[in-house]
Design a protein that fits this description.
The protein has 147 residues and is mainly α. It has six helices and two strands; from the N terminus they run ααααββαα.
Protein backbone atom coordinates (compact mmCIF):
# COMPACT_ATOMS: atom_id res chain seq x y z
CA UNK A 1 0.00 0.00 0.00
CA UNK A 2 1.44 3.37 -1.04
CA UNK A 3 0.84 6.10 1.53
CA UNK A 4 1.23 9.72 0.41
CA UNK A 5 -0.18 11.39 3.53
CA UNK A 6 -0.90 10.40 7.13
CA UNK A 7 -4.62 10.51 6.30
CA UNK A 8 -4.20 7.42 4.13
CA UNK A 9 -3.01 5.15 6.94
CA UNK A 10 -5.03 2.45 8.64
CA UNK A 11 -4.66 4.20 12.00
CA UNK A 12 -6.12 7.41 10.56
CA UNK A 13 -9.03 5.35 9.21
CA UNK A 14 -9.48 3.85 12.67
CA UNK A 15 -9.69 7.33 14.20
CA UNK A 16 -12.10 8.39 11.47
CA UNK A 17 -14.29 5.36 12.28
CA UNK A 18 -14.27 6.22 15.99
CA UNK A 19 -15.28 9.82 15.29
CA UNK A 20 -18.07 8.70 12.95
CA UNK A 21 -19.32 6.27 15.61
CA UNK A 22 -19.29 8.99 18.29
CA UNK A 23 -21.33 11.28 15.99
CA UNK A 24 -23.83 8.48 15.42
CA UNK A 25 -24.04 7.84 19.16
CA UNK A 26 -24.51 11.53 19.99
CA UNK A 27 -27.22 11.95 17.36
CA UNK A 28 -29.15 8.96 18.72
CA UNK A 29 -28.61 9.86 22.39
CA UNK A 30 -29.83 13.42 21.73
CA UNK A 31 -33.12 12.02 20.40
CA UNK A 32 -33.69 10.31 23.76
CA UNK A 33 -32.01 12.73 26.18
CA UNK A 34 -31.32 16.21 24.79
CA UNK A 35 -28.95 17.38 27.54
CA UNK A 36 -26.62 14.39 27.73
CA UNK A 37 -23.34 13.93 25.85
CA UNK A 38 -21.78 10.63 24.85
CA UNK A 39 -19.06 11.05 27.48
CA UNK A 40 -21.56 11.92 30.21
CA UNK A 41 -23.70 8.90 29.29
CA UNK A 42 -20.67 6.62 29.28
CA UNK A 43 -19.51 7.88 32.69
CA UNK A 44 -23.03 7.43 34.05
CA UNK A 45 -23.23 3.84 32.77
CA UNK A 46 -19.78 2.96 34.14
CA UNK A 47 -20.75 4.39 37.53
CA UNK A 48 -23.99 2.40 37.41
CA UNK A 49 -22.14 -0.85 36.70
CA UNK A 50 -19.35 -0.12 39.21
CA UNK A 51 -20.78 2.10 41.97
CA UNK A 52 -17.70 1.92 44.21
CA UNK A 53 -15.25 3.33 41.66
CA UNK A 54 -13.57 6.63 42.35
CA UNK A 55 -13.16 9.40 39.76
CA UNK A 56 -9.69 8.25 38.77
CA UNK A 57 -10.91 4.71 38.09
CA UNK A 58 -13.90 5.99 36.10
CA UNK A 59 -11.55 8.20 34.07
CA UNK A 60 -9.39 5.21 33.16
CA UNK A 61 -12.40 3.18 32.01
CA UNK A 62 -13.77 5.96 29.80
CA UNK A 63 -10.34 7.12 28.52
CA UNK A 64 -10.52 10.62 30.00
CA UNK A 65 -7.94 12.68 31.86
CA UNK A 66 -8.48 13.91 35.42
CA UNK A 67 -9.72 17.37 34.41
CA UNK A 68 -12.17 15.99 31.85
CA UNK A 69 -13.73 13.43 34.19
CA UNK A 70 -14.00 16.05 36.94
CA UNK A 71 -15.89 18.31 34.51
CA UNK A 72 -18.09 15.44 33.30
CA UNK A 73 -19.02 14.41 36.84
CA UNK A 74 -19.69 18.02 37.84
CA UNK A 75 -22.11 18.33 34.90
CA UNK A 76 -23.80 15.05 35.86
CA UNK A 77 -24.28 16.43 39.38
CA UNK A 78 -25.58 19.78 38.09
CA UNK A 79 -28.04 18.03 35.77
CA UNK A 80 -29.32 15.82 38.60
CA UNK A 81 -28.08 12.48 37.25
CA UNK A 82 -25.58 11.92 40.09
CA UNK A 83 -25.31 12.95 43.76
CA UNK A 84 -21.93 13.59 45.32
CA UNK A 85 -21.42 13.19 49.07
CA UNK A 86 -18.43 13.22 51.39
CA UNK A 87 -16.86 9.77 51.72
CA UNK A 88 -17.83 8.05 54.97
CA UNK A 89 -14.27 7.28 56.09
CA UNK A 90 -12.01 9.52 54.01
CA UNK A 91 -12.89 13.22 53.97
CA UNK A 92 -10.57 13.80 50.99
CA UNK A 93 -12.83 11.69 48.77
CA UNK A 94 -16.38 11.87 47.50
CA UNK A 95 -18.92 9.11 47.02
CA UNK A 96 -20.87 9.26 43.80
CA UNK A 97 -24.39 7.89 43.66
CA UNK A 98 -26.73 7.70 40.70
CA UNK A 99 -30.03 9.48 41.31
CA UNK A 100 -33.48 8.28 40.27
CA UNK A 101 -33.19 10.59 37.25
CA UNK A 102 -29.86 8.97 36.39
CA UNK A 103 -31.30 5.46 36.67
CA UNK A 104 -34.27 6.44 34.48
CA UNK A 105 -31.87 7.87 31.91
CA UNK A 106 -29.80 4.69 31.84
CA UNK A 107 -32.96 2.65 31.31
CA UNK A 108 -34.05 4.94 28.46
CA UNK A 109 -30.65 4.70 26.77
CA UNK A 110 -30.46 0.89 26.73
CA UNK A 111 -32.16 0.56 23.36
CA UNK A 112 -30.16 3.44 21.91
CA UNK A 113 -26.87 1.81 22.84
CA UNK A 114 -27.94 -1.43 21.16
CA UNK A 115 -29.10 0.50 18.09
CA UNK A 116 -25.75 2.31 17.87
CA UNK A 117 -23.80 -0.93 18.01
CA UNK A 118 -26.08 -2.71 15.54
CA UNK A 119 -25.85 0.20 13.10
CA UNK A 120 -22.07 0.43 13.33
CA UNK A 121 -21.47 -3.31 13.05
CA UNK A 122 -24.12 -4.08 10.41
CA UNK A 123 -22.94 -6.56 7.82
CA UNK A 124 -19.89 -7.67 9.78
CA UNK A 125 -19.91 -11.41 10.50
CA UNK A 126 -18.79 -12.64 13.93
CA UNK A 127 -15.58 -14.13 12.50
CA UNK A 128 -14.61 -10.80 10.96
CA UNK A 129 -15.35 -8.96 14.21
CA UNK A 130 -13.26 -11.48 16.15
CA UNK A 131 -10.30 -10.96 13.80
CA UNK A 132 -10.71 -7.18 13.98
CA UNK A 133 -10.80 -7.30 17.79
CA UNK A 134 -7.66 -9.46 17.85
CA UNK A 135 -5.92 -7.02 15.51
CA UNK A 136 -6.89 -4.07 17.70
CA UNK A 137 -5.52 -5.89 20.75
CA UNK A 138 -2.19 -6.35 18.94
CA UNK A 139 -2.06 -2.64 18.08
CA UNK A 140 -2.83 -1.74 21.68
CA UNK A 141 -0.09 -4.09 22.91
CA UNK A 142 2.39 -2.65 20.43
CA UNK A 143 1.63 0.88 21.61
CA UNK A 144 1.72 -0.08 25.29
CA UNK A 145 5.28 -1.39 25.30
CA UNK A 146 7.30 0.57 27.90
CA UNK A 147 10.00 2.75 26.42
Amino acid sequence: MIVDTPTQTVLYSLEQAIKAYRKLCQRNISQVMADLTVDQGLALMVLNQHPTLNQHEIAELVFKDKASITRIIELLVQKGFVDRAMHATDRRKFELRITAKGRDTIAQLGGTIQLNQQTALAGLPDEELARFYATLQKIIANCSVPV
